[in-house]
Amino acid sequence: MVEKIVRVVKWIKPSSPVLKLNTDRSCINATCGGGGVLRDYQGRVIMAFIFPLGHGTNNQAEVVTLLFGLKWCIVNGVSSIIVEVVSLLVLNCTIDVWEILWRIEDTVKEIKNLVGIHDIPIQHCFREANKVANKLASLSHSLTHVQVYSHFNTIPRIVKGILNIDRWECPSFRVIKRKANTLSFDLP
């Protein structure tokens, strides 16, 4: 028997004056890219980016995309931010819950250094609450160089609708299918 659990999930606006950075990655046939968006307490876009990476793994793409977003914020004087990522592996490696995989070790150490120096919290979010970053990441496969958007009007049209849905606080539904964890059998 399969049990379905349905949860209402939505992107949560940060408290003023904090900004929220969401990042995600996309990999198709080992070609990877990333995307991210920085938004304010009203859900308005401060910055969004699409980052083609070339050949790599999901985890490499995830950490390189996160590092790009963090560095952009720091270089541009954005100090009061919170970061949300979908990857529990990246989150748990960054906050020292899990051992760091050797392929991403240098990048994770750099992220940990920046997060520590600038006191930036990183937390997990469900993919249903990270649709903007996910869509931006998926667009990376059609680019050859980094795109940074600093105004809503310049963002790809396909992403604007998702941004508005988040801004209006419209929920998504997360459906989790779980198999029953009990064994039943007939005795002979």
TrEMBL record:
Cited Pfam families: RVT_3
InterPro entries according to UniProt: RNase_H-like, RNase_H-like_dom_plant, RNaseH-like_sf, RNaseH_domain, RNaseH_sf
Entry's Gene Ontology molecular function annotations: nucleic acid binding; RNA-DNA hybrid ribonuclease activity
UniProt-recorded name of the protein: RNase H type-1 domain-containing protein
TM annotation in the entry: none
Domain RNase H type-1: 30-138
Organism: Solanum verrucosum
Entry superkingdom: Eukaryota
